[in-house]
Amino acid sequence: MAQSILGQNLNAINADGSITPVDGEMGRFDEPGHAALAIGEYHRATQQSRFGDYDLVDLVARTVTAQAFIEEEAENGLAYSALGLLAFGPSKERNPVWERLLEPTRETLDHRLLQRTDYDNHLQAFNIAKAVTRFSMGLSKKDETGKLIDRFVERIKVNSSAGYCDDHPEGFGGCFDIYGVLSFVFIRQALQLHANIHLRDRKLPSLRTHAGKYIKMLPDIVRQDGLGWAYGRGIGAYGQMHCISLILQAMRDGWIADEEKPKYFDILRRLFQFFFTTYLDHEHGFLVIRDGERTTADTHTTRMANFDAARYLCQWARLAKSIGGSMDAKPAPAKRSGRFVVFDKSHRKENGLFNYFDPESSLHVQIPLVSAGSECGESSSSLAFPHCPGIIDWPANKQIPILLPELTFGKEKVIPAFYGKNCTTGLGLRNSFFFRYDQPELVTVDERFLTGVGSCKVNWTFLGGKMTSEFIFTVKNQVQLDSMRYVIAIGAPHTRYRSGLTYTIGEGGLRPVVIKDDFQAVWGETEVVTDDPDYRSYWGNIHYLQHLVRDHPLIMRPGLKYRLVVEFEPDIAFADA
């Protein structure tokens, strides 16, 4: 598969090392670096320096050169190109790519690898890769890798009481998404190329402490049909690829106990099968992340994703060889569960992820209570509703209140997402699972506290295949609510790129029932958005929007509770059933 993807994309590398984007897309400044590392990983997996008529050493020399002279901020690309260079040899005396580089390129690359901004997010992983390359290539006698890893781990501890990566700690804070997984995968890949294996062995235990937390989350996150990480920024194909790499690296390093391996082999098989059937065009041999039925984050391009997929496939092939074993192992039967993973708990706010799974109905949801970070106000992917693609969908690049009330006070819009206090989960009546949290201060859609206006309590209850949401708003002083809206998006998996076991919604739909509505909202006409590119998800197309709206003012008075209670019992089917 990696050969097929490379065969479709190497021709996009121009004579100057720049990358030609696919039709209809704009390129990124870091794409040459992604191409360099993809080729480097292919070389590591095969030990080949040619690919058909292509000289791989020449292609990497060109892309590394192009990346070195890009003036715009591109830490990502520099780190990827550095590891792509290092993949051909651990020292400049025995590295064929280094020999091809002209002296001005060598000097510029050395200078840019030395330059680094101190980051407190996933970009710090790229600093680590740059330090690994400088020392291993002999460009510096001082190895800063250990110090940078220590700083990365220390900031995890500072920004998260539970030891997870907050990728946007400034401002509102609390952005706990798949970029934490990406950070550990990339750092581990960089350390594997480090010339000093003793440093690698010294730093792995501290990385394991935190990476292991994400590994333990995966059994609750990965759906029966294989869909992986389904909330936050940059998901879709990357929600599969990063998780697969994390598991394979953990197995190679012995981080997963023997008795746990059957479970993780099964998770790995499902993750890969979903990736293979959902994102790969088997006829032409390339990755499809954006077409007439689905889209992805604006920051991801088709060309970058294809090079990343080729890189990961080569990496998986190498890791699989070193791990050995059989994929036939079967885990214990799945059990009904409801668990809340605490990401951070402080006096100011709490963040976490609630996962619920019912094997009888196949209902499997993720409710993130996290910040949207750099996508603040631009996406629905981090909102606190039950994420279940194919059943409960949302647009990739547009924020709308999916299964959440959005209240408008003048110019301010508030939504019960992003943070909570007093987060609790447990068993309720008739063996139901509940997830509750308070918001002592209302928070706006762009993640600002609206101090002094009011508060909200949220209660989600799950019983079998039925889920009930309750939102209770109170105000501190009399205030005018200008409007309220609540949206249900009805979508479907991709008509071509999908597994037969992919979840989809049956003829019965979500079966929503409004139990109590103190806002006296009414259902509007169903809005058809099938042909609107703004309403495509990471997995398929959204066809209809159903709006529950109050479009005229309501005077909210202190001492009164304003409730919205909505119940759902989704009709869950399979795509090819």
Structure overview:
The chain is of the alpha+beta class and 577 residues long. It has helices spanning 2-9, 31-46, 56-68, 75-86, 96-100, 103-114, 123-136, 145-159, 179-192, 197-221, 237-252, 261-279, 302-323, and strands at 50-51, 54-55, 280-281, 286-287, 337-345, 350-358, 363-369, 406-409, 412-414, 421-427, 433-439, 442-443, 449-450, 454-463, 466-475, 479-481, 483-493, 503-505, 513-517, 522-523, 527-528, 540-550, 554-556, 562-568, 572-574. Strands 8, 9, 17, 20, 21 and 22 form a 6-stranded antiparallel β-sheet that branches. A 6-stranded antiparallel β-sheet has the order 10-11-14-15-24-19, with no helix packed on it. A hairpin with a 2-residue loop joins strand 8 and strand 9. The longest helix is centred in the middle third of the chain and has 25 residues, at 197-221. The mean pLDDT is 95.
Structure, briefly:
The protein has 13 helices and 25 strands. The protein is of the alpha+beta class and 577 residues long.
Q: What is the CA-CA span between the terminal residues?
A: 28 Å
Low-confidence stretches: none
Q: What structural class do helix, strand and pairing data support?
A: alpha+beta
| Percent in strands | 15-25%
Number of strands: 25
Global geometry: globular
Please tally the helical runs, counting DSSP H or I stretches of 4 or more residues: 13
- Rg, alpha carbons: 24 Å
Q: How can the largest sheet be summarized?
A: 6 strands, antiparallel
Summarize model confidence as the mean pLDDT. Answer: 95
Helical content stands at: 25-40%
